[in-house]
Amino acid sequence: MRHLARFDLNLLRIFDAIFARGGVSAAARHLNLSQPAISHALAKLRDTFDDPLFVRQGNRLVPTPAARAIAGPVREALRGLDVALDAATSFDPAEATREFRIGVRLSGEMPRFSSLVARVRSEAPHVALASVTFRRRDLVMTLANGDLDLALDVGLPADDRLRSQYLGTEPIVVAARKGHPRVDGAIDLDTYLSLEHIIATARPYGPGLEDMALERMGLVRRVAVRCQHAITAWQIVASSDMLFALPRSHAEVLDAMWPMQLVELPLPVEQSGSYLYWHQAAQADPGLAWLRAIIVEELGATGKSFA
To answer: How far apart are CA 70 and CA 184, in angstroms?
Structure first.
């Protein structure tokens, strides 16, 4: 593409739809266009780039190396255009009907997303909110192409394409069942180490923050159970003498449904804290600026964890 002034920018929308959805029919449905219109646009794109761009493989159109090379820049450019158009108009929460997609790790959705929904909907009753899981290695791309508007996560490596806002940290507490024979409102390190523990994480291997802190002290605890969700760990704690360490906000939500003893963790743990992320191309988006301010106000004061 050598002459942008003579290039139909609508073709880039069609290229992006075919790339994302793997076919002409799916792209046509997404863009609410006819299949012949998409096929005609694809022919123009192929002629412009002097490359087939997509080749058929089974029921899908698979991108060529040339298509993969331009897919990222095309998505970022389209995202930038959308933001520029949005920025040209004011954002009225009371009248807005747009959808906001917030990247939240699975383990972090439970403690604070419901309160965020309540706050947002109180000011913008017609907007839609989506909590979306994501892979950290794809975060820049998903924010650039609009699959996510914002993301909440721990501290990540610096990237010039991302903007971030530090939300703070919160303490870790230890949950034990009521009537535990060795825990009664508090726990010391010796008792903590003598009991068995549960880890709740989506990672199949690796230590928890507590294990890394203990290793620095030359100590180790016995992890008897590893599960994927805090609710599962909470259920196990309720019917055993095992302990479960988790951020305070997570524990408070679960404790309201199924009361436990919540005691202070008897060792220092270094936490990276929680951050709010967005793509630099979305910096001027008035709707996202409004939502970022709400998130910082709701979650930033006490560092509610989304890790």
So the answer is: 61
